[in-house]
Amino acid sequence: MTINEVTLSPPPLPARDASKTNYVVIRTWGELSRSKIKRLNSAGFDHFDCVSKDTFLCRYLAKDLDKLRNNKAIVFADIYHSEFKISPPLRRAHPDHYYEVDIIYHKGVSDSPKLRVHISVASHTRVIKFSENKARLTTLARYLDEIALVDEVRYIERAAKTIPQNGGALELGVNDWIPTLAELHHYPDFDLS
């Protein structure tokens, strides 16, 4: 299976459950009709995003993957593995080089203080530009796998270069954010050492 131009070879063993994520990949029998979408919505899916032929990335808050695998409309179900989240050029990047990256969130995910802390801790940086559906930061390539483990992250790619127009670059809806130590300590499940 190829998602985001990433093919996992060999493919990972299917996860036993979805206890560590709210995002799964499903393959259906053929295209999704409105009636299939309605049935899948009633089974707990939302935010369908086509990632390959008849394959969808969905938010799924339940944890039982066997229930999904036994659904007649579904051929395949597994978690959205973090290996799919890093673009191929960044996957090949030198671990000790800095890269400016865009961290794209899943559909339906919006910026929040908790998500900001997750990304700050995972990226080992505190200077981050956040917008409604992504974050932009500069980090060492060695930290990309840690960022990919943040569940709300859908994809990580090199940031597009801003091209000045009419003498200046324009950035809309972006704000700089640097977490304070108090904000970082507010989430004790993060290792701040």
Helix tally? 6
The major β-sheet equals: 5 strands, antiparallel
What is the overall shape?
Answer: globular
Strand order of the largest sheet: 10-7-9-8-11
Mean pLDDT: 85
The secondary-structure element order is EEEHEEHEHEHEEHEEH
Low-confidence stretches: 170-176
Q: Give me the Rg, rounded.
A: 18 Å
As a percent range, the share of helical residues equals 10-25%
Binned strand content: 25-35%
Commentary on this structure:
The protein is an alpha+beta fold and 193 residues long. It has six helices and eleven strands. The strands form three sheets. Strands 10-7-9-8-11 form a five-stranded antiparallel sheet. The chain has a four-stranded antiparallel sheet with strand order 4-5-3-6.
Could you provide a short overview of the structure?
The chain has 193 residues and is an alpha+beta fold.
Sum up the structure in keywords.
193 residues, alpha+beta, 5-stranded antiparallel beta sheet, 20% helix, globular
What secondary-structure arrangement, pairings included, does this model have?
Blueprint: E1 2-3, E2 6-7, E3 23-28, H1 34-42, E4 45-52, E5 55-60, H2 65-69, E6 74-79, H3 88-91, E7 98-105, H4 113-123, E8 128-130, E9 134-140, H5 144-148, E10 153-158, E11 175-177, H6 181-185
Antiparallel strand pairs: 1-2, 3-5, 3-6, 4-5, 7-9, 7-10, 8-9, 8-11
